[in-house]
From TrEMBL, chain A:
One of its GO terms (biological process) is lactate metabolic process. Residues 297-318 form the 4Fe-4S ferredoxin-type domain. Keywords: 4Fe-4S, Electron transport, Iron, Iron-sulfur, Metal-binding, Repeat, Transport. The lineage of its organism: Bacteria, Pseudomonadati, Pseudomonadota, Alphaproteobacteria, Acetobacterales. PROSITE patterns: 4FE4S_FER_1, 4FE4S_FER_2. The keyword Protease does not apply. This is 4Fe-4S ferredoxin. It comes from the Bacteria. Signal peptide: none annotated. It comes from Acetobacter orientalis. GO terms for molecular function: 4 iron, 4 sulfur cluster binding; metal ion binding. InterPro entries: 4Fe4S_Fe-S-bd (IPR017896), 4Fe4S_Fe_S_CS (IPR017900), FTHF_cligase-like_sf (IPR024185), Helical_ferredxn (IPR009051), LUD_dom (IPR003741), LutB/LldF (IPR004452), NagB/RpiA_transferase-like (IPR037171).
UniProtKB/TrEMBL annotation, chain B:
This is LUD domain-containing protein. Residues 93-189 form the LUD domain. It comes from the Bacteria. It comes from Acetobacter orientalis. Coiled coil: none annotated. InterPro entries: FTHF_cligase-like_sf, LUD_dom, NagB/RpiA_transferase-like.
Length: 464, 195
């Protein structure tokens, strides 16, 4: 069966039609970007921190097998059970087996992009395990049957009335409740009994520390701490690239992470797990799921430096105006557009084109991933692998011919100017012209630069 | 071949040249001020509070004034009575009945306004720090460290504690239309009492 391409532009169109949601989404994310900038300006050492973070990550990736072995040895010494999952299926099987061994039917969990990647909930639920997301945004998404639309703020595309409707259906609250405070309180009240009765807890993790066998989890709600300290069984799942060599390296990353993500100096909770709590049992699953293969991609391996802060999403004009769900993938935004094709080249072939190439993503990245350059490189790879959709391929082909021949190009440009100034709207704004969708075409200029130059400079130059 | 060995083998075959990516020395950057004022400003920025000490106040009178409705005040420190000793809480779940938890933190971080807690301060009942409605943290000015770099370098707890949490203010969320709400799922308030 042929995998269907995600049609980002088409999905974005639906998002663009809803003005209140679009405006809020755009402004909220831009506000996060501005708060990030304020934090950056407070710290004169900001650029040093970025360089150091990038160097540490590149070093760690080049020595990944050794650091993972070191982590494993130390974690085992501290009483943690360490598992390795080559892919999503193995990850889900491991989790399922641990839960089955303990007879656990109720699992509370904090947000984890890896479990999203593995689509874990839909594996566990038919096996009789009730999975409850404890992060507020992630819970909203779970109740609404949607993927997270942002890696840090999963329900950022929703407004208060959307949440009120979802909670009314699931928590019997007032469907017209327009207070975020009382809705958040409803979540707290609904979550508490589930947390207290849970058989097992699960968290993701932001960092692994090789030196001590520690994993570090950052949240603002404290829901990862509730999920891990209330039940006596704690399963943590992390991508193998999340590792740093030394505990002292954490200083660099903690100082960058929340400042880049939300523009707050630190998350309200930064938790270091080095071993099971008294009377408890702890498991860590190290997940590959395509990462070891990505390490071998010369032009793309540095995407593994990502610490999942979401700064590239907040700054991206395309992401802000198309919404995370339009990417049709677990990872959206600029970082998603460069890592999703490593999971499935054909399915995600449209995503590297969801960029204006402005380079802002690269400039805000705390670990200095050259995101916009990788977007460009992906376009080339996808063209070489014949993964471009027909229209895009044909347009590129025509543009290539046009731009390769100056005379033809100039005739076409003159023609365009005439068309823009003389053709009626219905001819310019229709389905044949994607540039006329959701935007006004540029005003026609009286004269092209080329003809102006020929008339003025070229003649004068000759006269001198 | 096990998945472990398969993953490690692929990583060895695919990795970039280690010689081209040396490990940089440990970074110690930024402001080295470890003063109380810096800590308090950072703490308040993230919604944490300083428990007010009025003339003649003890911790008990200050708590009584701050939390007049509290019924169960659980103490995890030897020098404060409370209504319940943490040693008498039988299970992680039972800590949910607590209105106020009083605990002593071994150190704070001036840059962030963070306080540290581990099983050593919580009598191994880690859930108590999160299920209680409010938390009061006793902290000494002498135990402040300047920033995240100095904290990770100087504090032995990061190498010894099984569970170590840096709490910076109360639980918070902005997941509903970007509105900041303090007291989301964990503690509703966090107050620091200087000793």
């Amino acid at each position: 069966m042929k995998v269907k391409r995600v049609n980002h532009a088409k999905a974005a169109e639906e998002f663009l039609e809803d003005a209140p949601h679009l405006t809020f989404h755009d402004e909220r994310l831009w506000d996060m970007r501005q708060k990030r900038d304020q934090q950056m300006h407070i710290l004169p050492e900001w650029q040093d921190l970025r360089s150091r973070a990038s160097e540490i990550k590149e070093h760690t990736l080049a020595n990944l097998p050794e650091y993972l072995e070191q982590f494993e040895a130390n974690a085992k010494k501290n009483g943690i059970h360490v598992h390795w999952a080559a892919d999503a299926a193995e990850h889900n099987r491991i989790v399922g087996e641990i839960l089955e061994r303990h007879g656990s039917k109720s699992l509370i969990k904090s947000k984890s992009m890896v479990t999203e990647e593995c689509d874990m909930r839909s594996y566990l639920e038919p096996r009789g395990v009730t999975v409850t997301e404890t992060d507020l945004g992630e819970r909203i998404q779970q109740l609404d049957g949607q993927m997270p639309s942002h890696i840090v703020v999963p329900a950022v595309h929703k407004l208060v009335p959307d949440v009120a409707k979802i909670f009314a259906k699931n928590y019997n609250t007032d469907p017209n409740d327009n207070s975020p405070q009382s809705l958040a309180e409803a979540q707290r009240m609904a979550a508490r009994p589930v947390i207290l009765a849970a058989d097992a807890g699960m968290t993701g993790g932001n960092f692994l520390v090789a030196e001590t066998g520690t994993f570090v989890v950052c949240t603002n709600e404290g829901n990862a701490d509730l999920s891990s300290t209330v039940p006596n069984l704690h399963i943590a799942t992390l991508g193998i690239e999340r590792i740093v060599p030394r505990m002292a390296d954490m200083g660099v990353f903690i100082r960058l992470l929340s400042r880049s993500a939300l523009g707050s100096p630190i998350t309200q909770y930064t938790t270091h797990f080095r071993g099971p709590q008294k009377g408890g049992e702890m498991h860590v699953i190290l997940v590959d799921n395509g990462r070891s293969a990505r390490l071998g991609m010369e032009e793309f391996w540095t995407s593994l430096k990502c610490i999942r802060c979401g700064a590239c999403m907040n700054t991206c004009p395309v992401y802000r105006r198309s919404g995370g769900l339009s990417y049709g993938a677990v990872y959206s935004g600029p970082i998603g557009a460069i890592i999703d094709p490593t999971f499935n080249e054909r399915k995600y072939s449209a995503l590297p084109f969801a960029s204006t190439m402005n380079g802002s993503c690269t400039n805000v990245c705390p670990v200095k991933i050259n995101i916009h350059e990788q977007l460009y490189k992906w376009r080339r790879v996808l063209a070489e692998h014949h993964e471009l959709p027909f229209v895009k391929r044909e347009i590129m082909h025509m543009a290539g011919r046009l731009m390769g021949q100056p005379t033809l190009y100039r005739t076409a440009i003159n023609g365009t100017e005439v068309a823009l100034s003389t053709l009626p709207r219905f001819v310019l704004y229709n389905w044949l012209n994607p540039w006329g969708k959701h935007r006004e075409l540029p005003h026609p200029v009286k004269q092209t630069f080329h003809s102006w130059y020929k008339e003025n400079r070229l003649k004068k130059g000759k006269a001198q | 071949m096990s998945s472990r060995d398969k993953v490690l083998a692929t990583l060895r075959a695919n990795r970039p040249d280690p010689a081209a990516h040396p490990l940089p020395p440990v970074a110690v950057l930024g402001d080295m001020d470890k003063g109380r004022e810096r800590f308090e400003n950072a703490l308040q920025l993230l919604g944490g509070q300083i428990l007010l000490r009025q003339e003649g106040d003890t911790l008990a009178t200050a708590i009584a004034r701050r939390f007049p409705d509290a019924k169960i005040i659980c103490s995890a420190v030897p020098d404060f009575e409370g209504t319940l000793r943490i040693e008498d809480v039988a299970s992680p779940q039972q800590a949910a009945a607590t209105d106020v938890l009083v605990v002593r933190s071994p150190f704070g971080i001036a840059e962030m306004g963070s306080i540290f807690l581990s099983e050593a301060q919580l009598n191994s009942l880690n859930s108590a720090a999160h299920l209680t409605q409010h938390i009061v943290v006793i902290l000494s000015e002498d135990n402040l460290t300047a920033n995240m770099h100095t904290a990770y370098l100087e504090r032995p707890e990061f190498h010894t504690a099984n569970y170590g949490v840096l709490m910076t203010g109360p639980s918070a969320t902005a997941d509903i239309q970007g509105v900041l709400i303090r007291g989301a799922q964990g503690v509703r308030t966090l107050s620091v009492w200087w000793e």
